[in-house]
Amino acid sequence: MAPVLEIKNLRKEYKDFALDGISFSLEKGYIMGFIGPNGAGKSTTIKLILNLIKKDSGEIKIFGLDNLAYETEVKNRIGFVLDEAFYYEMLTVKEMKNIIAPHYKNWDEGLFSLYIKRFELPLDKKIKDLSKGMKMKFSLAIALSHHAELLLMDEPTSGLDPVIRSELLDILSELMESEDLSIFFSTHITSDLDKIADYIVFIDNGKIVLDKAKDDILENYGIVKGPKGLIDKNDPMFIGYRENSFGFEALVEDKNRLKMFAPDKIIIEKPTLEDIMVFYTRRNGNA
Amino acid sequence: MDIIISNTSEKPIYEQITEQIKDSIMRGEINEGDILPSIRTLARELKISVITTKRAYEELEKEGFIHVIPGKGTYVAAQNRQLLKETRLRLVEEKLMEVVTAAKSIDLSLVELQEMLKFFYNEEVY
Q1: Same-domain pairing of B56 and B18
Q2: A168-176, long-range: CB within 8 Å, 24+ apart, which pairs?
Q3: CB contact under 8 A, A196 and B41
Q4: Inter-chain CB proximity B49 and A214 less than 8 Å
Q5: Is the ipTM of this complex over 0.95?
Q6: Over the stretch A154-209, which tens digit does the pLDDT of each residue have?
Q7: Are B66 and B18 in a shared domain?
Q8: Any CB–CB contact under 8 A between B13 and chain A?
């Protein structure tokens, strides 16, 4: 079976930034977290997938179909939640929905009503008067009301409080009980949604740094700390090496390889995805 | 059946799941033929990755605790409680032998040892 989303050598150049031939793919029924610092190329990638901007070269396939040649068909089968919503601020929730709904072949009004109720969205309120959390929920209700098989979300949790982030987490884990949905979301807040992510793709400065199952990352990577001079800091095995007056810290890909070092002199900690992002970004000279 | 996941534990999440399911089987909370939640339901309930629950079930199946009937579900396998009990029994025997050796080395009598054992047995051990 073709992956739900497949990206090959995707390139997009701007004056001061380039998406540098990135590749990755997502299998059906899984959640992929697309992480990286601000300006790494996350939104550019998502806009390219949705054909909101033109790629320079490379291939984007959704459900095995070229995203440009089959744009209408593909878009009928995806739902998206973007950071900057494309809504008319002066319209009410209901009016906006009435404009969007006819664009989807499989629009399900009953399902939309269900989500409106569940998310407690006021149909007669103007979009501009919705809180940030409500806008996200409205986007999500729209994205989920036409039986999308792929949910694309660009920074869905950015600017939201922990309560709404956790609500979103509940909704997404509920949706994933069906094997037919796949989710691709970008974020720079790696602490909440990543709980349920199956795969992590980490992008920095337009390049893919890491593309692995999340469990593999969290099980094998380690943050090592110890006294200065114990290890060779130029050894490529140490990522984001940094010293302070009292010792060093660095990230390693395989903490089991550290066993050969004096185990009583070093500490190995389990990193979070956020740690991994920080250590990798350091190596790239952004310390 | 209870499954409590710690996100900060050093122990991988899949291992936390396999251990707790094994414990439930041994304590008789779930029995041969009982259906277990699907990997997707488990992932949904625990708010963790499907890959994690899948791996937990794969490990349990490899060790013979559960079996998967494709298209139907995942079931607790036969006789595991017995097997598990025997394994633990052997462990108890081994430890007891150590105790006896240690006791004999300081000429502790059987009665004294029994007294000690009685004391510890009646004390709640956590």
Answers
A1: yes
A2: A168/A136, A168/A140, A168/A193, A169/A193, A169/A195, A169/A196, A169/B47, A170/B47, A171/A140, A172/A31, A172/A196, A173/B43, A173/B44, A173/B47, A174/B44, A175/A144, A175/A151, A176/A29, A176/A31, A176/B40, A176/B43, A176/B44, A176/B50
A3: no
A4: yes
A5: no
A6: 998 888 888 888 889 899 999 999 899 999 999 887 777 778 899 999 999 999 99
A7: yes
A8: yes
